[in-house]
Design goal:
The protein has 269 residues and is mostly helical. It contains 13 helices and no strands. The protein starts with a helix and ends with a helix.
Length: 269
Amino acid sequence: MHHPHHTSLVRAEDLGQGNSNTTVSPHSHSENSSNTSVSGVNTCNASVCNVSVNNVPNIPRNVNAGSGLYANNTDLRKLTLPTFTDSISQVPLHFIQNLDQYFSLKRTPEELRLALVLRAVKELFAKQWLSSVFDIMINYDEFKKAFTELLWCPSRRARIRSAIYLDKHDPGSGESCFDHYMRYANTASTLNPLMSDLDLSSALTIHFELRVQQGFICSNLQSTQDALAFLAKLQGLGDHRQTFQPPRHEFDHGDTNRGPLQDQDNARN
């Protein structure tokens, strides 16, 4: 059966919206998923969902369309199609949000979106899954629902929620307290139901060493913004201490390596 979005794929190639040697090869993915529904997804892939929030860095965004100012001052031709390359380190909901922003800024027609999604998904497992269900997908919204069900399953969300309460910051890791808090706050924003700022702050306070915990408590922080402002100041103080060097004293032979008092008296005589 011929579907409209196949024509869209040809149109996308003709328009030259990207260079890709995408090969759509239907295959069986029974080893990766089970109980597939019409959209090809019902249950979560265990290897994908068995992850910790430690694998989720401060997620880089391919497209940041947070304000109209950005859109007005940016050459839209320079915007790149967001890509999904790693189901372990990337948060699926962030990828979907980036796609939505990209399509909105580029004013991409609905009939072209599913074709472009085929180029955007590059991670092996996700691409194999998409290839296997592409022929039965009707539109971009159906892809978003199925993709989320596949990679953002309840077990993965439960592991992330657990990590927010149980993980610890390692001062020797090279990650600053600010970056650590930002990473977990960024990941917590994908949970449903959302954690309140107060709950998140309480959970993340115990991630840090005692002096930082005391600073949180004494500062009576009420929001994520307050916590980040406090950690930014703390980091600035730490950088200042590292760059500050005490004045160097001049070497004075008369003040160092003095012998016993009796030898000094003999020398003067």
